[in-house]
Structure formats: C-alpha cells, structure tokens
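Bug #77: duplicate submission created two jobs. Keeping one. Sequence:
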Amino acid sequence: MSFKTDTQTLEDLNLLGKPGRESVFNIYNRTNTRGGADILEHLFLYPLSDAEAINNRSQTIQYFSREKLAFPFKSASIDSAEVYLGMTDKRTMLSHEDNNLSRKFSQLIDADNGYKLIYNGIIAIITILQDLSDFIEKIISSASTTPFQTELEEIKSLLANRDITALIAEKNLNKLSYAKIADLDKLLRFTILSKIKEILAFIYQLDVYVSVAAVALMYNYIFPKALHKDEHTIDFTGVYHPLVKHAIGNTICITPQSNIVFLTGANMAGKSTFMKSLGIALYLAHLGFPVAADKMEFSVRDGIYTTINLPDDLSSGNSHFYAEVLRVKKVAKELGANKNLFIIFDELFRGTNVKDAYEGTIAITEAFAEKRNCMFVVSTHIIEAGEVLREGCANINFVYLPTRMDVNTPVYTYKLESGITTDRHGMIIINNEGILEIIRSRKNKTIS
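Kept job's structure:
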C-alpha cells in the first residue's frame, strides 16, 4: 500500500509552497542540477510506506552527511551535456564528409555554433564520466557497508561498458581532432545514448543525496528511525517547526494506549505551529529525510491528512462549516478503509455555533478513539468538550500550550504541559490594542 495524502495537507504543512515563497521543499532543495531538483520534487510528492525502504534511504543520506561529501561535478558541465543530448535530430550528427578545408581553421570552427554545442557537449560528458569514476573510486570502500553500495554496484556495471571505459581513459581533451569528435558524436548521441542517460540519472540522484545531507549538517537535523507499522507508535523528542525562527521543541509520544492528542490553549499560544511541526516531521520521516527534532522513532503510516487552514468553498456556495463537514467525511472514508493514518484537526467545527461545535467535537473525537491503529491530534478552544471526553475515553492524552500573564500582557512558553487549560485571553489582547477606545473616540463625529 502506498503512502496517501492530499492537496489540503500539502498546503496546510507548506511542504511544496508556491514559487518565490518559503516552503519546506526550499529548505531541502540545495541541488546543483535541474535533474536533481526534479527528483527531489518527485520524492516530496511520493513518500515511502515501507520501513526497510525508508531506513535504507535514510542510511544512505546519513552516509553522505557523515562523510561530508560534496557534489563532484561542475554545473556548467552538466548543463552542456544536457543541451547536447537534447539535440536528437540525426541531421545534426557530425560526419567525416563535413571535414572540409574551412573546418580545419580553428577560428571558423569556433564560429560554427552548432559545432561548438556538439564539441562542448562531448567534452562535458567525457569530463563528467572521468569525475564520476574518480568519485566512485574515492568512496567505494567507505560505502561498502551502507545501502548505497547497491546503487554503486549498478553504476560501476554501467561504467564497465567498453565504450564508456574508453571515454574515461581519454586524454588531451583539448586536442581532439574533428574526425575524433565526429566519431564520439555518433557514439554518444546515437549509439550509447541510453547508457549515458542512465549515468546522468544516477548523478541527479547523487545530487539529491548530497543536497539533503548538507541540510542535515547545516541545521543539525536528526534522522528518524522507521518502525514496523504494526507497532502504531510515534515518539517525538524536541520536535519543532523548521520554518519558524528560534522555534521551541516539544516532546510527545503517541501509542495505541494514548493515540489521541487533545490539544488546548489560548489564541497565539502556538497550537497550529505545534501541530504543523508534527505533520511536517512525520511526512519528511517517510521520505527518509532528516527532520527538525532531537530524536524521533515512528511506525510507518499509510497516510497523513490534516485540516488546519481549510478554505471556504465559495464556488459551490458552501459555508465554512459545511466545508468542515465534508472534510471530516473524507477523512472518515479513509479511516473506514482500515488504513493506519495520522490525522490532524485544528479546531473542529470552528465555522458553526459553540453548541454544535461542542457536540460535534465530542462525537467525532469519541469516534476517533475507537480507531486504535490510527493517530489523531485534535485542537479546540472548547475546553468543556475535553472535560466530557476525559470521563469517557481512556486513550486520550490531554495536553495544552500555556499562557503566563505579565500584568496584562500574555507571555507564551510554547512548551507542552499535561492537562486542559482554561486560558482565554482574547479580550485582553483586544483591550491591549485599544480597539474599543478607537471606536468610541469617533462615535460622535459627524460626516462632513
């Protein structure tokens, strides 16, 4: 079964973001090539759902991080190779018959843009192959006990091809004759093109490993350990939001005996940020990527669904409340398919009146409590619902984010505590901003 999520979740967690805006993807995208960036984006869209596969990818990236390996190729060489290999029209292939007198004059050869593209592309590919051979020779011993060894053996087999071996052994690249270039052009673009593309694909994957490993070193991220899905456990230690400056880490463990986290706290206490930090860490962990935490172990999930910034469905004429109902219905269908899911709901039914929200929060959370194979994080301002649930459900972990008052100024710790908070400081914030005074100061003014 593949890992499932949806657009709402990707947007809630800001995983891919929009062009020009900060996103989780942008943190990890330090790739040197377009091919590497494409692979990284594909990985972001398709998390793994097998513990062994996750741990193997994680261990490979850990190896690159531990060895502090840098990308061993020049971006200009990769660009030249890509442009050259994109010239697939056979009419552009060099031939010996074209080696006329005018081509023998170097200044005229330099002026021939088509020839220059071909020449530069060939030199770039040979240089790339030589650099790759040197890189593999450098790491082959240290990588022998890692999962990356399998990929190394595959690429070594490709490089052992007779034609490619000859290219790696090529010397004096700046003195290749026109005839030699013509032979190489036929070889690279029309004889062993598929093998060259396989090698470039390996290099793009290498680019991703180097990029993500560098992020782990730069931000001191840790590598989670994936556990079998049947354990139904996630242990977050010091997890924090990677896009929040000076973020505060929190620790929480979710098990079948406490598979629902019921979160309360005043406005601005950090509830949404905390929930997003859990969702982001778990999603990235299924990629085998390092995460913003001190330690993390997790049972593999079949998917993750969040409802944090649910938009109104104005095009259908639906109210915000009905959009919430439809979202709960969608999640309910996923739960009914016997999947091991991680679910986040930020303020269930905030779009309706307090009475309906109270009753709905209790009813839905009680239904969630029956799904011991799944994990839920539910936040609410309706603390009375928490008191009812405390009496009826033994598998709910009640936590809150506190607010300390410094005279009339709320101070937020952003550190989880056990229990249900009664903190409500909305009117204090309104009064601190002087909103009522602003309104009253103008009520007697007439319009001129």
